[in-house]
Amino acid sequence: MADLGMWTIDGDAPRRVARSGVGLERHLEDWIANDCSLLADGLTVVGRQVWLEGGPLDLLGIDWQDRWVVIELKRERLYRDALAQALDYAASIAGMDGDDLEALLRPGLERLGDADELARSVRRQLDGEDEGRDVVVLLAGIGVDAGLERIVDHLGGYGVPITIVSFDAFQPSEDKPLLLIREVAEERTPPTRRGPRARRTVDEIRALAAVEGVPEPFDRFLKMARDAGLVVRPYRVGVMIAPPTHHNRYLMYARPEKGGIVLSAGPAAFAEFFPPLTEDEATAAIEPRGRGRSPHLAGAELNARLDQIEAFLKDLPRPHDDG
Predict the structure, then answer these.
(1) Which end of the chain has a smaller Cβ tally under 10 Å, C or N?
(2) What pTM value is reported for the model?
């Protein structure tokens, strides 16, 4: 983000907006803990300042792909040592006994939101690790060193998933709110090979929904997404819904589980791909329980949420629409 600039336009006179570091370094971790969508949609933070063998991990999350996310924050430019530190933390999380990890996280859940809901999220995550534990790395800071980018690109070729998020701040004037700018370099990984942890087909995940006792609601979710012109992509135990023009971008995720469906959505992505829809409108329509949550829904509550999502999707412009 070294060459990033911002201007306001008043008639024919562009006016450059000055960069501002006010509060950025000091409050970045608090802002992210309060709103996980600053880093990524579908992310739930379940640990903050988690003490591991290598030191205190800034944040630990669970993403919409059911992976543990080791989040290392820097109040300055990101360099190669940040990656080495994060990989050390990731190794600790990957090798930890599940019960020990749950016990480590439990005392800090109250500081992060609904402790009971977060505890259930941790327990669901651990219960689903029969085939192993997926741990990925996310680095966030104020600018990125070129050397770090080279290493991340190289490791991506070997299937090491690393995401880099860089922030910058601008202050239009003293009486205006601070503008926070985010740039995301998404993880670079080769196609997943077929194996015990590889992606299933959509039909295989539909079969999982039948085993979990929710074949009709799950099929209904798939149909409403396809009817809206969206793309259904299978993952290990669930499906991601993507826009028709960008099959790697996350709009929604659904995973059948224990008589219900775990649903999450990315309001910011809907606003990006379906203007003039705003993020606030999308949030109100599909994430009424708050950002960063992936609630387990069953029975009447699940049907009500599906009704809500279906009504929302019916108003989206179709891929062939001019607008």
Answers:
(1) C
(2) 0.73
